[in-house]
From TrEMBL, chain A:
Name by which UniProt lists this protein: Uncharacterized
Organism: Syntrophomonas zehnderi OL-4
UniProtKB/TrEMBL annotation, chain B:
UniProt name for this protein: Uncharacterized
Lineage: Bacteria, Bacillati, Bacillota, Clostridia, Eubacteriales
Organism: Syntrophomonas zehnderi OL-4
Domain of life: Bacteria
Pfam families tied to this protein: DUF2229
Residue ranges of domain DUF2229 in the record: 3-216
């Protein structure tokens, strides 16, 4: 059995660890390239959202490399992600691929169910070993996030941005290679320290909150590496979604890591008073949160036709006025012109820069 | 008399008789916007956001038109779920909030949450809450709702005989409508009712098909059992109520030899449709399938051409049975090892 899975940011590092620990051979899909997206666009439904198209591309490329089992997530709506796996299976079978699909679906977000399904994948691995593996995978995700957060903080501040970027890449690679908890954290903290020692610019950077749909936020290939684009422009980005927060809040009921998920949902009142699936309510709640933390602006990103984010987008202008924070929405689809995104980001940051500068000038006068 | 405004869009096509009866029984006067027309569309797309689907944009137009009539209340229910373990669509779940954010000067909104995904207890409370606006007599409220359900049943029976929802509402309100009976083709026509049955949004797709000599079979003409049975053949239960009805009806029709072909009307950017249409196309056993996508464009001629071409193809297919076995692109067209 050769198992493959979809890409989502740096998630592959953790998944590789999980499969290795469960003594299953895994074939991670190659990194997302133009070809991945082209394959996905060609074979997916036209109006399917972007994550599905990338998934399909990932699977085709992995099956070409010899994978014979696909592990995919699921859900029970109302977001269409809940039907991804089934439609993807139909598409790939019709293309003539021979494979098994294991769909990890927690019927009521119960970790025990998920664990059972994972176990069915595993061969003769003891419960203790499986637990150990999951713990190491978790440590890796946690270490990666430390590096990511440091990059988000230092990239806009340091003068030699490419150096910080390189330190980040190296740290992710060594976390990927690590086979113990200590090694992971060591790599993470070393990278953080090295970034800290780089010479910085004098000016305090602008700070933007990034909200929106989870896949678009976590997968750089789905968002034109927006965090780095902004970082190179000298803008610090804080995300509304980090993978460990999401896993903790949705799979473990908030037990393993304290998250402020509940307070984010509470902040969405009175603008969006009902759960709308996906991350619609989180988008509104986090925007309010960023405004109250005195961020300089908020950018909402999502794949085109994403239903929950459309609801959020309709409400965002009201939040923007009432909470006094500039907001912009960017939709992503298979269009691949970076220059357009770059121009819009530059215009937005110019605008919030001027707004901030004028405000501080007025106070002095 | 208290005037309650019900916009003639979206779930108007599924529940108008229920809502109207309920409010009238409670002593309110019900006004609704006129059926969708060009002006409704223009008003809607002026205020709604670009990314929303067409029927949602049109709904914004209906609300503005109603607002000009000056009702005391606007009835904008939040339809989360109308049956166990299923949803409508995320946009419906956030619709009242979207409207409040885009249209600031509205009369008080009756924002009733319809969520039956777990049980109907919440709905009972919501009905009581809404009824209390008009009367404190709890018995009258539950009686009005029961009466509403009865009317809804009558209305649904009309639709089972083959009338679209717009026609059924007209008949329910006392007008006369007849179904054309002369037809040589039988088509299954599917889509979300609020776009398919709205004559303006669908550019009168059903009417045009009937004029072209087709008998139109709609989702509502299939029985609940037929739909659920066919939908159960999918690898996973579809968790959108309308999506499951469409896919179930389509697969049921696909196995029916009397039906010549399927037409699916989808709205640009509709999330459920993007997945449902894929299931139907891939699982309908080669039944001729026409997918039509609409948005606010107004080129009716383009639609007519495609419908005519589809009907012509189906008629020819019947005449020359052999041709239907030839793929238009395949290697078998010039003969292969096992055939001519």
């Amino acid at each position: 059995m050769k198992v493959t899975f979809p890409h989502m940011g740096n998630m592959h590092v953790a998944l590789k660890t999980v499969f290795k620990g469960l003594k299953i051979e895994s074939v991670p899909p190659p990194p997302i390239t133009k070809r991945t997206l082209e394959l996905g666009v060609k074979y997916s439904p036209e109006f399917a959202c972007m994550p599905m198209k990338i998934n399909v591309g990932n699977f085709i490329e992995a099956l070409e490399l010899g994978a014979d089992t696909i592990v995919m997530g699921g859900g029970w709506g109302p977001c269409r992600f809940g039907l991804y796996a089934q439609v993807e299976k139909d598409i790939l079978k019709d293309l003539g691929f021979d494979f098994n699909m294991v769909i990890l679906e927690a019927p009521d977000s119960k970790i025990s169910e998920l664990f059972k399904q994972l176990k069915s994948l595993g061969q003769n691995v003891s419960l203790l070993q499986a637990l150990k593996t999951l713990k190491l995978a978790w440590n890796k995700l946690d270490a990666i996030e430390i590096v990511e957060k440091n990059l988000e903080y230092f990239l806009p501040r340091v003068i030699e941005k490419a150096r910080a970027d390189k330190l980040y890449q190296e740290a992710i690679e060594s976390i990927d290679r690590a086979d113990g908890k200590n090694q992971c954290y060591k790599a993470a903290f070393e990278a953080a320290k090295a970034m800290q020692e780089l010479p910085t610019e004098n000016q305090e950077p602008l700070k933007i909150g990034l909200v929106g749909e989870i896949y678009t936020i976590l997968e750089p290939a789905a968002n034109f590496e927006i965090i780095k684009l902004l970082g190179y422009m000298g803008v610090e980005v804080e995300r509304s979604i980090y993978l460990t927060d999401w896993i903790s809040a949705h799979l473990f009921g908030g037990y393993i890591k304290k998250t402020d998920h509940k307070s984010i949902i509470a902040s969405a009142q009175p603008y969006l008073n009902y759960w709308v699936g996906g991350h619609g309510q989180e988008t509104i709640g986090s925007t309010v949160g960023f405004a109250r933390q005195k961020c300089d602006g908020v950018i909402q990103i999502a794949p085109l036709t994403c239903m929950p984010e459309i609801v959020a987008q309709a409400i965002l202008p009201t939040v923007s006025v009432k909470e006094d924070i500039p907001c912009m929405t960017l939709w992503f689809d298979e269009l691949s012109g970076t220059a357009g995104i770059q121009t819009r980001l530059e215009a937005f940051t110019d605008m919030i820069y001027r707004r901030k500068y004028r405000a501080s000038n007025l106070k002095e006068a | 008399m208290t005037r309650v405004g019900i916009p003639a869009g979206l779930f108007y096509h599924y529940y108008y008789p229920l809502w109207k009866t309920f409010f009238v029984d409670l002593g309110a006067e019900v006004i609704s916007s006129s059926l969708t027309n060009r002006q409704t569309v223009e008003k809607g797309i002026a205020v709604a956001l670009d990314e929303a689907c067409f029927p949602i944009k049109v709904y914004f137009g209906h609300i503005q038109e109603l607002n000009e009539l000056g009702p005391d209340y606007l009835f904008l229910p939040r339809l989360v779920s109308v049956e166990a373990r299923s949803y409508i669509c995320p946009k419906f779940m956030g619709l009242p909030d979207m409207i409040k954010a885009s249209l600031p000067d509205l009369p008080p909104i009756i924002d009733m949450v319809v969520d039956m995904s777990i049980n109907s207890k919440g709905l009972e409370q919501e009905i009581k809450r809404v009824g209390n606006i008009f009367t404190t007599n709890e018995k009258a409220i539950s009686q009005a709702f029961r009466h509403g359900r009865e009317e809804l049943c009558k209305y649904r029976q009309l639709m089972q005989t083959g009338f679209s929802s717009s026609e059924a509402i007209e008949i329910w309100e006392g007008q006369e409508r007849l179904l054309t009976t002369s037809a040589d083709l039988q088509l299954g026509v599917l889509g979300h009712g609020y776009s398919l049955y709205d004559r303006c949004i669908s550019m009168n797709l059903i009417g045009h098909l009937r004029e072209m000599g087709c008998r139109v079979k709609l989702v509502e003409t299939c029985s609940q059992d037929e739909i659920e049975k066919a939908a159960a053949s999918l690898p996973k239960r579809v968790f959108w109520t309308l999506g499951r009805k469409n896919v179930g009806a389509a697969l049921h029709m696909a196995s029916d030899d009397e039906i010549d072909g399927l037409v699916y009307l989808a709205c640009f950017g509709c999330g459920p449709d993007s997945m449902i249409k894929e299931f139907i196309e891939r699982r309908s056993n080669g039944k001729p399938f026409l997918g039509i996508t609409i948005d606010e464009h107004t080129g009716e001629a383009g639609l007519l051409t495609r419908l005519e071409a589809f009907c012509d193809m189906l008629r020819r297919r019947r005449k020359i049975d052999f041709e239907s076995n030839l793929p238009p692109y395949g290697q078998y067209a010039c003969g292969s090892e096992n055939s001519l």
